[in-house]
Fold these 4 entries.
Entry 1:
Amino acid sequence: MKTKLIFIFSFVILSSFMDKPAYKIYDKSGNQSSYENMLLECENADIILFGELHNNPICHWLQLELTKDMFAKKGKDLVLGAEMFESDNQLLIDEYFEGFITENKFENEMRMWDNYYTDYKPLVVFAKNKDLKFVATNIPRRYANTVYKQGIESLKMLSKEAKKYIAPLPVKIDLELNCYKQLSEVMAHMGANAGINMANAQAIKDATMAHFILKNYKKGNTFIHFNGTYHSNNYESIYWFLKQKKQKLKIVTIATANQIDIDKLDEENIDVADFIITTPETMTGTY
């Protein structure tokens, strides 16, 4: 009997050392947290900015799980939105959800990201089946590209119709925010205006996403927005634009980070968001 107990104890100890968790969640201070804690905070949020690594399968799974659990709490008061869909495609989403066009037509005519079918379609299908609003928040890429090539002032030349798909002009942009300042410095070697234009191109994306989040949010709702973690890390980018318009909004931010070791939050990832999902660097990507 004693030998059997020793064997069982040894097996438990060995198993604990062999455990390979797919992810761990930390709070902003670097303390280990949990999905349950994250969900509790999200339940009381007006807006959730779920920052992803675009090819991270664990992140996409957790996005869907959080959406399902939030729907169980909020029902039809839940609204979804995503960087991956551009604002001028909102009509296609609405027509598809209303059954006016087929799934095939919808997918053929939308400018889908290559990983739509594996990573974002489950969210779209869930929203459609539950009759939830799904908002295309991002600026049409052609306009962001124009800013990169010609500068932020080029947006003034857009038609009245085109301006419906971007944040109202003029857009207040703070290029001293680290997210833009660092980008500008990295790109500066490519030309006199390359760094500033790139920073402004990212900023107009953030401003537009914030604009369409607020346009489709109303008191009592919870709006979950899916975006690249860059666009909400460090309480900048989309978060900053939202707070400029509505300071009192309760916003919960979620970041995603790959680490060599997920047993401790890396220093560089402390305080980047309210919750940080860490996954091993060896995690298989969706593309």
Note: The longest helix spans residues 194-215.
Entry 2:
Amino acid sequence: MGQEQEIKFARTLEEVKSLAKKQQNSISEDQVKEAFKELSLSEQQLELVYDYLKKHRIGIGEPLDPQEYLSDGEINYLEEYKKGLEGKAGLSDGQRQALFHGAMAGEKKAQQELIHACLSQVAEISRLYAGQGVSLDDLIGEGNLALSAGVTMLGCLENAREAEGMLMKIIMDAMEECIAENSRVRDQDKRVEEQVNQVARGAEKLAKELRRKVTAQELAQETGMTLETIEDAMRMSGFAIEDLER
């Protein structure tokens, strides 16, 4: 697969994921095949796509059963959370539409009632993002914050259906950003750990040769690491690298 095809493949994969999210996090095999039609993927390549989608909590043909990707603790938490919301979302379509119109008009009471009416949806949406490094309660928390802000951002839209679509997108975007930020923090923590370990290994080796603790300057001269890298590692470890003098 050439570079241009790889770019198109990655773009198409994101489009497929986006479409699946609009369909309760599921997509049909026919939709996947249609999306990748121009790339003429083999059956084996399509199977790899299906596997990738399943790993990202996207069902092929139907939504995945929560039992397949939620832990028992998460299932229990979700059930208890939703029990606490009983009675808050029991609105008719007409009542719900009226709330959206009120929120779009900037009515504070309608916005508050709309928040309560949508809390259970936030919980349902959180299931789509479970198992990606962020706990359900954190996902729901981020979703609820986005919901509270989102109900005040609907005034530019033309109808209730469009407003509901935008509100759900705001909630989903918030959860995706939460996962992305968590991933960035994990990557940063991993880089910090690797840097500290590299400096610690170098210090240990040199200390054995010299039979004493070594200075940052000595370690830099011996290993080629910069003095800044070594001093950063010392600070990030809380000055706990035992073979390095402070």
Note: Residues 139 and 175 are 6 Å apart (CA to CA).
Entry 3:
Amino acid sequence: MQPKTINTLCYINRYNMKGPQKILRYPRLDTILMAENYIRKHDGEFKKRALWEHLPRGTMYQTYCVIIDYLLFSHKISIDAEGKIGWIYYPEDVKKLMKDKSLFWNGK
């Protein structure tokens, strides 16, 4: 039996209605940065809907979904098995680890 995996596209579409849609509102940069900072501060605390309700500034839900889709596809956030959103983008830590000679990549 294979372990269950979350198909990212199916998971996103569950919240964004059914099938592909036209995006009516694109988020502004300050809105994206506000959501990124809030997710980074509250790493793993909220599910998607609860996070939207707790944002410091109100946004339309469709705009918020575009932000979440962007952050998922850019590998800055992940969604765990419980549906909670966590911040996973730490480039400074990766640079430090890449300099460590005791760590290496075995490309098998």
Note: The chain has a mean pLDDT of 83.
Entry 4:
Amino acid sequence: MKQKELKFIERIEEIKALARLQKHVVSKAQVEELFLDFAKDPEHMEHVYSFLREQRIGIDEAVDTDEFLSKEEKSYLEFYMEELSLLEKVSDGVKHAIILSALAKDQDAKNKLIELFLPQVVDIAKLYTGQGVYLEDLIGEGNIALITAVEMINCVEDSSEVEPLLVKMIMNAMEEAINQEEAELKEEKAAAKLVEKVSEHVKELSELINRNITIEELTREGKFTAKEIKKAIFFSGGEIEHLDCETIENEGL
């Protein structure tokens, strides 16, 4: 990879990290400053702004995340927000007092702190919609991370660091869920491609000898490793046309 391309990727990661610190909003001036070396290339800058749109990162003002929700997600969110509306609202002063009590290891205050941040979990989750994980699952991951984070607030040195810690751990949990979903989808696509290749090759061999192929013959033929054949059989549900899959245990795969 060329040095300029590496530098561009680094800048993308920097703008993403900056947005996380600023509630998914960056200024146009910040973008222009970070990508000063690429400003003369319209194609590069289009990639930047396209990335920001895809990541729900606003320029100078927050993105209206509701427009990215599906009908089902809006329906779920309406019901869920009705439940959250029953929770007690508190002033900023009371919120700060709760944080201080939670830092003093008061369990009731910790529980109250979790309640206070549940609506914020929803706001954060809406920033990550459309990336392969349903809103309901994002909120679930965020809530678990919130509970875990509240138990870790004693590691901060000042009460002002509590909210950034909670937000960071909530966002990390959602991003991890998205990354895991992407990895699983990538593996499924690769597996489906392997099944397709093995099936096509087995069909060709079967037509040549006018009968089904045994796993031993397919392995000996050498086009696929034993591991690939076993994987293809597994992801096909144990049935590949023209291949005798029942002999898999006997043939040591």
Note: The chain has a mean pLDDT of 88.
